[in-house]
Amino acid sequence: MTSRIVRLANFVMPRSGGLRTALHALGAGYLAAGHEPILIVPGATYADEMTAQGRVITIPGPVVPGTGGYRVLLARRRLVKLLEELEPDRLEVSDRFTLRWTGRWARERGIPAVMVSHESLAGLLTFAGPFGNPWADLLNTRSFRSYDRIVCTTGWAAAEFRRIGAANVAQVPLGVDLDLFNPSRYDDSLRARYAKPGQVLLVHCGRLSSEKRPERSVDALVGLRKRGIDAVLVIAGDGPLRARLQEQARGHTVHFMEFVADRTAVASLLATADVVVAPGPIETFGLAALEALACGTPVVVDAASALPEVIGAAGVAVTNDFAGGVLQVLARPVAARRADARARAEQFSWPAAVAGFLAVHHSSPTVAVR
């Protein structure tokens, strides 16, 4: 049965990463399955266009200070009017901050509503100090009571809901474009641009913000060179910590790239690397890490995050010693470690993710309002 699935998301812009990728892939999948996806996001100006992921409506929203340009939807009256005009059959909300009210709005109208948890609220609030967890529990409780279903992409992400008694949590992993992100993207000329023969090429690919801990990738490079490993690091991404990282990297072989909008260029960089470092401690899935695996490149990740679930044995999880993690990867035969990385990524596909999300949409139980 065809459904009009209206999707809402904050913190999305042309230069954003994982969330934007997931929204696009899911929307395109819904469209291919015969549904009518409509995505509403904040932006600088109003826009309404048809795209490969379905209809995308942009509503003006303010920039959140300190985020590097991310915007949020705040105009509730305008948004309510738009939702009423669109008459959704189902609602999918990728935000738990300014849009939580949409769950109750949908329930009052008998519209099944799903919230997708793309970030760890408990993790984010740890940056706010010791009172983070109680606030996270309070806000997460309000979220799971507001929506029919909560979708989490890993068991790690689901844990913060299940520990407060949420019974309406579904776990659906995201996917990766296995054709785009492929070992065949290896590029000798790209490698020659950044690394001399015999050097180890490390790559950090992601937003340069505090919750991603990009400084750990620089520390990994420094640690490797102290241990006698001739290595270089390429940092691909942008964000509020860029200037601080450039200062930290001064005197070391670190190359900074601007945000890479061309996904093929990203795939080539990941496929050409020897090791990708994904040091974020509160990642709930880690699409960039999965994309690296799909390119045949092992990943070193933070053991405290959800990434060990995603990478399995195709990488190394560490607590703090990312240089040591890189050494563990390099100790394995090249062909074996690259084959294992690709094989692990092949367990995740966007068609499977789309099917999982649609199954949740069409089996949403009603949760009593409390």
From TrEMBL:
Domain Glycosyltransferase subfamily 4-like N-terminal: 17-179
SUPFAM superfamilies tied to this protein: UDP-Glycosyltransferase/glycogen phosphorylase (SSF53756)
Entry keyword Membrane: no
A Pfam family matched in the record: Glyco_transf_4
Top-rank taxon: Bacteria
Residue ranges annotated for the Glycosyl transferase family domain, each copy included: 194-341
UniProtKB keywords: Glycosyltransferase, Transferase
InterPro entries associated with the record: Glyco_trans_1 (IPR001296), Glyco_trans_4-like_N (IPR028098), Glycosyltransferase_grp1 (IPR050194)
Protein name as it appears in the record: Glycosyltransferase family 1 protein
Higher taxonomy: Bacteria, Bacillati, Actinomycetota, Actinomycetes, Micromonosporales
